[in-house]
Amino acid sequence: MDISFKNVSYTYQPNTPFEHRALTDLSFTIPSGSFVAVVGHTGSGKSTLIQHLNGLLRPTAGEVQIGEFKLTANEKPKDMKALRKNVGVVFQYPEHQLFDETVEKDIRFGPSNFDVPDNEIDKRIPEVMDAVHLSTAMLERSPFDLSGGQMRRVAIAGVLAMDPSVVVLDEPTAGLDPKGQKQIMDMFHQLHKEKGLTTVLVTHSMEDALHYADHVIIMDHGTKYMEGNPTEVFTQKEKLQAAQLDLPEIIQFLRKIEETFHISLPYKGQTIPELAAELSLLLKGADGYE
Amino acid sequence: MLVAEKTIVEVDNLTFRYDLRKDDHTLSAISISIKQGEWVAIVGGNGSGKSTLVRLLAGLLKAERGTITIDGVRLNDETKWDIRKKIGLVFQNPENQFIGTTVQDDIAFGLENNNISYDEMKQTVDEALKLVGMDSYRNQDPSRLSGGQKQRVAIAGILAFKPNVIMLDEALVMLDPRSRIQLLSTLKKLREQNDITIISVTHDMNEAALADRIIVMDNGTIIQDGIPEQIFINNDQLSPPFAEQLRRKLAEKGSAVPQSYMTEDEMVDWLCR
Q: Do residue B264 and residue A253 have CB atoms under 8 angstroms apart?
């Protein structure tokens, strides 16, 4: 589903002493099937933005369009439920939402609330368990007996079981160990490709944004500060620093080398092993002249 | 040099299991000694017992066997109330602990419970909020703040107590990289000025690399304990900081890189030699 924001503003608790403007005149488009990372320092409006994607919030001004669903200050889709079925949101610490006696019941809860027939849910459960790399043997266990990483996977399976076409991820790897973080992100990337999902990732990790996204939106003070392909955006050091953001580690490192060596070593999507190969070639070259 | 010789936290043979009916121990016979002013990072996979250990240290859980001594006082049911003034714990998710309707009330709450006078309380709240850079938010509702801002308020709530030891249980995960660096340098400054000991449970290896010492836990035991340079060289299960990852790959490619751990600056210097 295509997503577009047209001049969207959002104010929390308007006309009260607590009035707080979180989004100001925000416009962007996310074409269907893209993987977009939304990056910005804390309080820049990222979480407010994503709550518009499934109608938890409606803009104070402007217009949000998600597929055929339209949200404005005065207008909400007739069928909000259909919107929410299409847009699956994985919130921060989604495992805090687990509540049922067994993993299976917990996963069923979402789709059955959206009137998905039982036999269809039966079919989806092994699929989503497989997608989050959990064994179906776990279905009868209590979700509360699982490890943190497993609980998070169960919560994610519950979102996937609604068969959404848009998946919104709010810091999905927070609190997981490095291995778990990589597994979860690789899993979402794989799902994104296999199912042709539109994925919106909110993250503080420049590395993840660089590695997984094909488009980046940088938020600052409730407005869109930068937008574009990750390599383009993440090589603009001065502009990023003005928004209190840093370059991804690998780009930072390349910059340092360029500055001290006075050579050109541009970032072109190389991984650490590829960079190591490049550097050892450079080193050999240098040794040759000695 | 910052580290005094005084031992502030002494853990001896600590053993714990959540379910006494089962044999699997979350912690098995752990012993650690931490000096005042030391910065210790505790790392390890999910489920390795890191969070359980800090909860035991704060007296939130009771050990099955073994002892904990904080600043010379043995932790038990009678002493835990006094010990909690010395050892502050900042959790992963601050949302679960907010009480006040404004940020400043929330920080004052803990102080009120300890019979601090109004004037002193006012000053302490001011200082704590400034330390975490949240003084302009003092009249806001904490539940309306962003994730990272909430974490700063929770940390301010602990700082207000001027504790000897601050334990962070993954407390920086929700912060953006820049605020994380800012808070880490705030904590570093606090440690230098007030001789505070910091125990930080973390998955962030860049953060762990800043510590004086890293303790690696696995399956309820300590498998390594040493300075970051040693730990990253000897443990290939941990994801080390970027420069160290690059150093290993360069070594694989046959470059004559040093065989010891390198920070990013050291790596750049080495490349430019």
A: yes
Residue contacts between A and B (CB atoms, under 8 Å): 119
Sequence spans of domains, chain A: 3-247, 248-290
Ranges A186-190, A204-208, A242-246: which has the least confidence: A242-246
Q: Which two tokens stand for residue A190?
A: 């794989």
* Interface ipTM: 0.75
Taking the CA atoms of residue B96, residue B99, residue B103 and residue B104 in that order, the dihedral angle to the nearest 10 degrees is: -140
Our CA angle for A179, A185, A190, nearest 5°, is 125
Q: Looking at the domain A3-247, which fold is it?
A: Rossmann fold (3.40.50)
Tell me which residue in A40, A149, A275 faces B46 most closely, judged by beta carbons: A149
Tens digit of each residue's pLDDT (9 = 90 or more) over B50-67: 989 999 999 999 999 999
Computed on alpha carbons and rounded to an integer, the radius of gyration of chain B in Å comes to: 20
Q: Which tokens in the block code for residue A119?
A: 């036999």
**At B208, is the pLDDT very low, low, confident or very high (cuts 50, 70, 90)?**
very high
CA distance, residue A74 to nearest chain B CA (Å): 24
Give B175's pLDDT tier (boundaries 50, 70, 90): confident
Q: Which residues contact A259 (CB under 8 A, 6 or more apart)?
A: none
Any idea where the domains of chain B sit in the sequence?
A: 1-86+165-176+190-236, 95-162, 241-273
Interchain proximity B174–A276, CB inside 8 Å: no
| Digit-coded pLDDT (tens) for B64-104 | 999 999 999 999 999 998 898 899 898 877 777 788 889 99
Q: CATH assignment of B1-86+165-176+190-236, given 3.40.50.300, 3.40.50.620, 3.40.309.10, 3.30.460.80?
A: 3.40.50.300
Q: What does the mean pLDDT of chain B come to? A: 88
The whole-chain average pLDDT of chain A stands at: 91
Own/partner long-range contacts of A210-213 (Cβ < 8 Å, ≥24 apart): A210/A234, A210/A248, A210/A250, A210/A251, A211/A185, A212/A35, A212/A37, A212/A185, A212/A188, A213/A35, A213/A36, A213/A37
A23: which 2 tokens?
């989004």
How far is the C-alpha of B172 from the C-alpha of B150, rounded, in Å? 11
Interhelix angle B103-112/B147-159, nearest 10 degrees: 30
Location of structure tokens 């303790």: B215
Q: What angle do CA B261, B238, A267 make, to 5 degrees?
A: 70
Percent of chain B with pLDDT over 70: 98
